[in-house]
Amino acid sequence: MVKALYIVGGYVMNKKLISMALTGVLAVGVLSVATPSVADARKTKPETSTDISVQRAPGESMVMTMSKIGTIFQNRFPNAALHSVELNSNDLNYGYKVVGYSKYHQYKMKIDVITGNTSDMDEGGKPKKVIGEIFNKDKVIEAAQAERVAKQQLGSDAVVKGWKIEAHEGKILYYMTMHQDGKKTVVTVDAETGAYVGQSKSSKLPPEPDQGFDGRKTNIIWDNTIDMGR
For residue range 81-99, what is the model confidence (pLDDT) as tens digits? Predict the structure, then answer.
């Protein structure tokens, strides 16, 4: 079985390691490019080899901006506008889940966080409503700003585990899934103004230890340090 390897900032990593490293950078984008300014990704299969280069400036986050996500989506579906974009850490297969609408169709796409590769593309039927259900990729705040608003409400120790931006009935909102003290809270932020809107009632998280590199149960915190408690 041939595994895909990625060269990021001079380090050779497989997809699982990159995905796990991204657990702590869902929104703020701590993982960044130093030099060179191009993050190269190579996927090798028995029958073919493809080199893909995603242009990034030195120090730029590996996490894509909303404008970049929207551009990739609209290059494939030029008649559509964004309805929602979602990123979460429920599995080790990080990708932006994008939904868009045109007048006559609904479109879905997954965009790889690292390479920008697209997959799981789907074209559906006519949406029930378009007006008030789409947004301009260049006129909303980034997830990092929405995360800061969420932390202002909950405290700096809250950790973002996922987010979704969605247009509905004329409102464009971020839903930030935050974990803190063994509980989950969803904080809602206005995606146009950055204003705090509200938050859900906190719910207790089930005990689900992370899986380590070697498959053993570990407690891994992806930050400046790694705490491995076996």
Answer: 999 999 987 656 679 999 9
Convert 131-168 to b/e letters by CB count within 10 Å (16 or more is b): eebbbebeebbbbbbbbbbbbeebeeebbbbbbbbbbe
Closest CA to 77 of 166, 165, 162, 137: 137
> 210-211 and 5-8 as β-strands: parallel, antiparallel, unpaired?
unpaired
Task: For 59-79, write each residue's pLDDT tens digit.
Answer: 555 678 999 999 999 999 999
What is the identity of the amino acid at 209? P
Asked whether 177 and 186 are in contact (CB, 8 A), the reply is yes
CA separation for the pair 139, 142 (Å, rounded): 10
Query: In the predicted model, what is the mean pLDDT of residues 25-36?
Result: 46
181 φψ region: left (φ > 0), alpha (ψ -120 to 50), beta (else): left
Among 140, 136, 134, which residue's Cα sits nearest to residue 103?
A: 134
* Residue 147 to residue 180: CA distance in whole angstroms: 13
Angle in degrees, CA 184, 200, 156, rounded to 5 = 55
Task: Return the residue matching tokens 């904080």.
Answer: 187
Determine how many CB atoms are found less than 10 A away from the CB of residue 224.
7
